[in-house]
Design a protein that fits this description.
homodimer; mainly alpha; 9 helices; about 0% strand; DNA-binding
Amino acid sequence: MKVDVESRSARKERDIIHAATVAFVGQGYDGTSMEEIATKAGVSKQTVYKHFVDKETLFGEVIRASAAQATEAFDAVAALLTEAEFMTGGLRKVARRFMTTLMDEERLKLRRLIIANADRMPQLGRDWYEKGFERMLASMATCFQQLTDRRLLRTPDPYLAASHFFGMLLWIPMNEAMFTGNKNPRSQAELERHADATVETFLVAYGEPAKPSA
Amino acid sequence: MKVDVESRSARKERDIIHAATVAFVGQGYDGTSMEEIATKAGVSKQTVYKHFVDKETLFGEVIRASAAQATEAFDAVAALLTEAEFMTGGLRKVARRFMTTLMDEERLKLRRLIIANADRMPQLGRDWYEKGFERMLASMATCFQQLTDRRLLRTPDPYLAASHFFGMLLWIPMNEAMFTGNKNPRSQAELERHADATVETFLVAYGEPAKPSA
DNA sequence: CCTTAGTACTAGACCGGCTAGTACTGGACC
DNA sequence: GGTCCAGTACTAGCCGGTCTAGTACTAAGG
């Protein structure tokens, strides 16, 4: 009768992944020792090695778990835009949401971590790019396509338009965060102002052909 | 008569920095040992420590040297745009130039290196951001301001316009390079097509108000 | 032109500290 | 009694940085 049999082993594994995530994100790959992870997980080193063959594998699981959790969030935001009525103020709202979602402290650290280790573990970075970055672009592109079909936008190449959207939105804040480690990060208000300004420009470039401009 | 006064000491120092640059860029900070740098520079470890107090200092010099060399290149590209007559095809040319300059293999590796170590050495990343990234934006913004003055563009906020320009231009290729380590990089032609498409969109958003569109 | 003295350099041993990963033991829970 | 696991000791190896003993270069002075 396996009621809660996923307990011991599975719970320990979750604990380990959680502790490892915190440690890796906070101190980087080389800065984190397996001993430390074991201790923080309240587990012995041996147990860590029972669940994960070696450090690289554990790191991979950490990244994959976090990435999966991230894509959910993106899809949720993109879903807001399918309803055409959200058009006028809707794009603005979506831009703000993407901004705050993507500029979240933890997510930024994770991003830096992946970039930092893209050399050591190329498959990881590639995965993240395809399942995170490209997917985000693709689902935004689908939205734009639909809005174009309904004559609410004019995006001959929706994927390109999506890349322009995110590029304009995030180029400055993302680079600042990547390079400066996001010490004294931008305020919410600042980011939202930037998002609004970007939406305005985006609509000038890709806005509806019928009405001239709001 | 100091003909070749860059005598042994200075020459050795250059050798060390060069070897260190190659090593750091190729294998990262932790992946590179001082011993290795010394060997590759054809120099003894002791000599390395005579010129640079410790590993971090050496790393800092490496980054600073490369960054200085980079800003030169950017300024050269931006300078192309001051001549108003280059307006029609000029922006396209500048975009292509920025694209190929920034997507250079070595420069990308350097960029990854800085991001990877932005936590460990925050001042370095901050410097690079201010003297590289922001400066690039600022000089582009100056160009846009001038072109707006001459009624060739319409950029109420030239700095924002510059950030939109670079964001649209580089968001995809830069992220791909950062995450995937730039294995099988995009072809020159592909990058230039992307640059052209971006310029077109940019001109729709910020183009001259007199003529409707080319 | 040669000597001399001071400085830069080499080669390699060496130290202290840290880490991935393994092996073993004694106890807890089933 | 059997299984799992914490705790800990251990192996093996790397690396930053120092130290020493001896060698090459350089520049001033006889």
